[in-house]
Amino acid sequence: MHSEPDGTRPGVEEERPSLYALVIYLPEPLCGFLDDLRLELVPGCNPHAHISVEGGTEQLRQMHRSLNRGALALEEPYPYHPHVTLAQEFEMGHLEALLALASRRWREFRGPRRFRAESTMFVRNTRGDEWVDLASGPLRAAPVSPLG
Predict the structure, then answer these.
(1) CA–CA gap between residue 59 and residue 43 (Å, rounded)
(2) Could you give the domains of the chain?
């Protein structure tokens, strides 16, 4: 096969390892509200709101520690912190305006802000930086062995 002078092959994207994640999707109407807000903040993104922030944070961290080992271990660039992504890949000069808009929309939201996490979704990141649902399963209490 023909190679370029720098050793790359024409028309072949740089290969990168597959990325996988276990997420908890938010229920409606909260999910729809957050997806619409994210599209308003960053038009053209592909949102699907997932994970809760306030209650259950320590349980989510424990689940993350329990799953992030052995064959599933990944050295992540940042410490794990349960969150909902509202905006990314935007110009930093727009930060204050985006924050003000998100804060205003959150104050206007009249739906429930709490939910019970009952299922998970195993997802894979594709080359286009989009996440694809692979398999779902129930989320239920299970004994966890201490890390050590």
Answers:
(1) 33
(2) 19-138 (3.90.1140.10)
